[in-house]
Design brief:
The chain is an alpha/beta fold. The chain is about 35% helix and about 15% strand. The chain contains 11 helices and 13 strands. The chain has a 7-stranded mixed beta sheet, sandwiched between helices. Strands 9-10-13-12 form a 4-stranded antiparallel beta sheet, with helices on one face. Strand 5, helix 6 and strand 6 form a beta-alpha-beta unit. Helix 3 packs parallel to helix 4.
Length: about 400
């Protein structure tokens, strides 16, 4: 039985302005200054609706949104900017893909690594619409075997869903190899959840044979909350229904939803302020280079893992990032302390922000053995993480372990 919690007396609470941010897997912070400026400029100088006017400012706004599509298409090697769709968050993106791509009676192959934004829509189809699921467990290194996915395919398989990186362990999955296994099955849609990798890890949708790629705009892409993105391969548009219908600012004379992308999937007024920020963020990422950002992230993750592994009171749940590629996320627990208590102590006494809990990924925690014990503490780095941030976390955890 766990001992009762004792008061923590190592240090007094920190000043309110003391902050070490290591929760980039939830949302990135800080944002590039250009993102803040773009949102502010929209709110103070533009203010018009996108795709709904002919004024000079409306035309400029539409051009800026078009440029954002083009930049994302280049970032992921899409064939056309029209393959880039805007949504309101990563969950909205995944719902578009799942609900738009499935039909009653289909079979889906997915994994234990998935977020509830995948698992819950699939559960609706399984419970109510006759869809069957094959859920593949990861290997000991945290990666899902491409051969096991291929072996799970059936004649009626319609969708393979794979997260590009677990939001709990950070392990990057072999999407290129999985895509190669699907090249002989053109009827199967390959959906990749890139919530933890877009902007962090290089992605080539053509090389990986991806039909649908979904992500939020506010994590690795460094844009504001309330933005999401879907890449939808142009040849698949007729196969993926729009699950939201309404005004698109185009073909307004017709009662039918437009059939072409992106209009088919973008009903209602978009988050114009958010998209202006996202456009600036993608420009900033391209200026830095995704490869350079990934290398910087890898350095901090390796340093973080080494320090955590050296602490005898800490159990690291993420695999060794020297052996398995990691997208910037490390999960751990401190012996004898509920993960949520650990996170509270880090924030209150050291000004260090992490996330604790189940991270909306119950099957991962079931696999790790942490589902019934409150999950894990998750530290996640970003483009503005520094060595001193990592040092601060490692030092604080040593102090907490000593005090307990």
């Amino acid at each position: 039985m766990r001992e009762p919690f004792r008061p923590f007396r190592v240090s007094p609470p920190v000043e309110p302005d003391t902050r070490v941010y290591l929760d980039n897997a939830a949302t990135s912070f800080p944002k590039p200054e250009s993102v803040v400026c773009a949102v502010t400029e929209y709110m103070t100088r533009c203010g018009v609706a996108a795709g709904r006017g002919n004024s000079r400012r409306a035309t400029e706004l539409d051009g800026r949104i078009a440029a954002c599509r083009a930049a994302l298409a280049r970032l992921w090697n899409a064939e056309s900017p029209r393959e880039i769709l805007f949504t309101f968050n990563g969950t909205d993106s995944l719902n578009l893909a799942v609900h738009g791509g499935l039909r009653p009676g289909d079979h889906v192959v997915t994994t234990e690594l998935e977020h509830n934004s995948v698992l819950r829509p699939l559960r609706v189809w399984e419970a109510e619409r006759g869809v069957t699921l094959s859920i593949i467990a990861p290997d000991e290194d945290g990666r899902v075997s491409p051969s096991r996915i291929a072996e799970a395919l059936r004649p009626n398989t319609r969708l393979v869903v794979l997260t590009h990186a677990s939001n709990v362990t950070g392990v990057v999955q072999p999407i290129v190899e999985v895509g190669d296994r699907l090249r002989g099955r053109p009827e199967v849609l390959f959906l990749v959840d890139a919530a933890q990798t877009a902007g962090h890890v290089p992605i080539d949708v053509q090389r990986s044979r991806i039909d649908l790629l979904c992500c939020s705009g506010h994590k690795g892409l460094l844009g504001p909350l309330g933005t999401g993105v879907v890449y939808l391969k142009g040849s698949r548009v007729a196969e993926v229904h729009s699950f939201r219908q309404g005004g698109t600012g185009s073909q307004s004379e017709s009662l039918d939803q437009p059939s072409q992308a992106p209009d088919k999937y973008e009903s209602g007024n978009p988050n114009a302020a958010g998209l202006m920020g996202l456009a600036a963020a993608v420009e900033w990422i391209q200026g830095q280079g995704v490869e350079a950002l990934a290398a910087r992230s890898a350095r901090w993750v390796q340093m973080l893992y080494a320090g955590l592994a050296a602490n005898p009171s800490v159990r690291v749940l993420s695999p060794d990032p020297w052996l398995v590629e990691n997208a910037g996320v490390v999960s751990f627990v401190v012996d004898g302390i509920d993960p949520r208590v650990t996170a509270t102590l880090l924030d209150a006494h050291f000004g260090i922000e992490v996330r604790a809990g189940l991270h909306c990924a119950p099957l991962v925690h079931r696999s790790l053995g942490t589902l019934e014990s409150g999950g894990t503490v998750r530290a996640s780095v970003g483009p503005f993480t520094t060595e001193s941030d990592v040092d601060a976390l490692l030092t604080a955890l040593m102090m907490i372990a000593t005090a307990m």
